[in-house]
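Batch 3, record 17
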Amino acid sequence: MKQDRPGKQDRPGKAKGPAEAASKRQSFSKKTAVGIREVAAAAGVSPATVSQVFNHKGEASAATRERVLSVGDRLGYRPNPVGQALRSGRSRVIGVVVSYRESAVWQQTYMPYYQSIIAGAAIEAVDHGYSISAAPSTEDGEIETRLPLDGVIVVDPIPNDPVVEQCMARGLAVVIDGGYSPATDGARMVSVRADVAQGIPTVLDHLWDQHVARAHGNAGNKQGESGGEASDQSGENRPFRPALFTGPRLDSYTTDTTNAYQSWCEMRGLEPIVATLGHDQPPLDAARALLARGPRELNAVHCLNETYCSAATAAAAELGLAIPTDLQISVAGSAYSVGSEERAAYLNLDPVASGALCARSLIELLEGRPVEDHLEPMVLVPARRVDFGA
Amino acid sequence: MKQDRPGKQDRPGKAKGPAEAASKRQSFSKKTAVGIREVAAAAGVSPATVSQVFNHKGEASAATRERVLSVGDRLGYRPNPVGQALRSGRSRVIGVVVSYRESAVWQQTYMPYYQSIIAGAAIEAVDHGYSISAAPSTEDGEIETRLPLDGVIVVDPIPNDPVVEQCMARGLAVVIDGGYSPATDGARMVSVRADVAQGIPTVLDHLWDQHVARAHGNAGNKQGESGGEASDQSGENRPFRPALFTGPRLDSYTTDTTNAYQSWCEMRGLEPIVATLGHDQPPLDAARALLARGPRELNAVHCLNETYCSAATAAAAELGLAIPTDLQISVAGSAYSVGSEERAAYLNLDPVASGALCARSLIELLEGRPVEDHLEPMVLVPARRVDFGA
DNA sequence: CTGAAAGCGCTAACAT
DNA sequence: ATGTTAGCGCTTTCAG
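Prediction for the assembled complex:
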C-alpha cells in the first residue's frame, strides 16, 4: 500500500530522495528510543492507529490491536510522554507544593508531615499513570517548577494563601490538604481534612475518663465509659485540667483544633489553657513554660502534632513529671509509626494515606469525574504504656 | 511521490506570507498561554531570537535582548517546558527512586530518610532549573513514572540493585546515595556517602572514653581526650562492651558500618556483639533480645539508625536500664532534629543536606561538568542529657 | 475501521 | 546579528 516509507522521512520537503531520508532514519533509531513510527511500520499500520491502540481510545479491530500491541511490546515501545504532553496539553504531573523556606521551627514541625504526603501521593499517582513532583514555592506564592503541572496538592495553606490564589487564578486543579478559606466557587478545588471537630472532644473526654479512673484507684487500662458522664465526678481529688499546646500558624488544622478545644472546654465547664508556640520559639521552651505550672494547675495536655508532643514529654521528664500519673499527654499524629510515643493517647493520623487520598481526589478532578470533599474521622488510640522507673 | 500530494510540505514555509502566519497565530492566542511567537511578533523579531534571548545562548544585540525581555515580561511569557523538552531531548527532571513497596518495617525505617532526601533534592534542583519527581520502582527495577527523567538519585541500593542496573543500561545519569557495588566504569555515576569508616571508630572511641571517665567517678561531661589511649584503663571496674544494632539490608551503608565496627573491635581487642534485625522483625523485639544480656555483658550499643535507637531506648526503659549509666547509646542520624534522643551520642547525618548534595552532583553530571564522588565526614555529637529519675 | 495531514511550542542549523 | 526552516514524538481531526 505504501510504496515507500510512510511517516516523516518524506517530509523533508525540499529535495531529498527517499533513500537518503531512510538512511537518516536509521541513524536516528540507533540513538533514539523506539518511536511510534517504528512500531507503525513494523505492524504495517499508520502511526495514528498505533496511538489509538495504545491509548485505549476506541476503534480498532481486535486483530490490529493485537498485532500492534505485540509488535510494540517486542520493540519495547514506550510512548514518549513529552510528545503526548505537547500534543494533548496535559502533562499528567501533579505538584505537591512545599514551602520549605519558612522558619526553622516550621520546617522541623511540618516537614515530616509534608514528606509523608509526598510519599503517599507518589504511590497513588503512579497507579493512575500520573507522576508527583515536589515543587517548592516562593514567598509570593509562585510555584517554582519547570514542569507543566496539571494540578496541585497544597498542604495546610493559611487563609488567602498566595499559592492557592495563584493556582486558582491559573485555573489549575487544586486539592487542599487541611482545608482552605475563603471557599471559592467555580474553582476546581477539593479539600481533604481530618475531622478535628469530632476528634478533639473524643480525645479530651478520653483523657478525662482516664483521669477519673486513676483517681479512683484503677490504674486506668479500662476505657470505654461514656466520656460525657465523667464530668460530675471530676472534683474529687484533683480537678481535671487539660491544656492545649498549639502553634503559631493559622492554617485550618490549627484553628479548627483550637476552636474545638475551646468549645469543648466551654461545654464541659472547664477553663481553657492554651499555650501557643512563638514564631521562632523552640518547642521545648514553650513546653517547659507550660508545664512549669505544675501538676496541680495542669494535668493533661493535648499536642497539636508530634513535634510538640516530643517537646512536652521531654519537658515533663526534666520536671520529673510522670506520664500519665502527673501528666496525661495526647497528640494528633501517627500512632503506629516506630517513633510514636506510647505513653500518649493518639488521635490517629496517617499522612501517607492522606497523601494518597489527595492524589486520588485530584486525579478524579482532572479526569472530570465528580469529587466530594473528604472529612476523615480521627480514631482514638489510647496510651499503650506507662512510665517505667516511676 | 511528493509532487502528487500537496500534503504537508506546503506546511508553513514555502508559500505562506508572514502576515498570513501572523493572523493564524492570533486565533491561537485566545486559548493558549502566550507563546514564543506572540512575543516575537510583539517585539518585532523572530521566534528564534526570542528563544535565544531567553536561553542566554549568546548572540543578540543588547537593544534587542532588552526589548525582547521587556515584551516577554509584559506579556507574561513563560517558555513552555514541554516544548523545550521535546525539542532538546532533555526534560530537566530528576527522579528520586523510592522503593515504597517493601516490608512494613523497612518502610518505617527508611522512609523518613528517603523523604528528607527528596526535600533536600527538591530545593537544590529548583535552584538550578530542575525539578524533582518521586518515582516509585517495581520489584524488578522498573522505574514507574511517565516522566522522561534526565537522571536519577537512588538511595541506598543493594549490590547489583536492579534499579541501578536498569538505569545504567538505559544510559541514565545516576547518583547513588550511600555507595554502590560493583563499581561500573564508563557509566555516568557518582556516589555520595557518609564516611562510615571514619565515623564508627570515632563514636566507639568516644563511648569508651565516656565509659572510662564514668568509672573514674567523673559524671562524664568532659570529652576530647584522645580516644585511642583509653584502652589500657578499661579493665578496671567493668570492661567496655559495645554492641552493634544493625539491620538485614545489605546496602553499602549497613555493610560499611558492620565492617567498621568489626575491624574497630579487632583493633581494640574487644569481642564484637552484633544484633541484626530479622527481615520482618519489629525493632523493639530485637532490642529487647539484645539488651536482655544485661549491663555486665553489654553496656553500650551503636544503632544503625534512629529507628533502632528508639527501639533500644524503649527496651532499655522496659528493662530498667539507665542511660548512659547502665547503657550508653550511640546512633547515626540527625542530632539536631526535634525528635532526637538527647541521651544518645550521635554520628550526625543530615539527610536534607545529602539530598541537596545528590541533586547538585547529578546536575553537574548532566551538564557535563566533572564530578567527584563525595565522602561526607560524620561529626560526633556527644549525648546532651542523662536520664532523669535515675 | 484506518490513514493522511496538521501541527502542539520550541530550538538547532543554516541562511541572510 | 537576526530570520528562516525543519522538525522533536505524538495525537487528532477529517477523509476515505
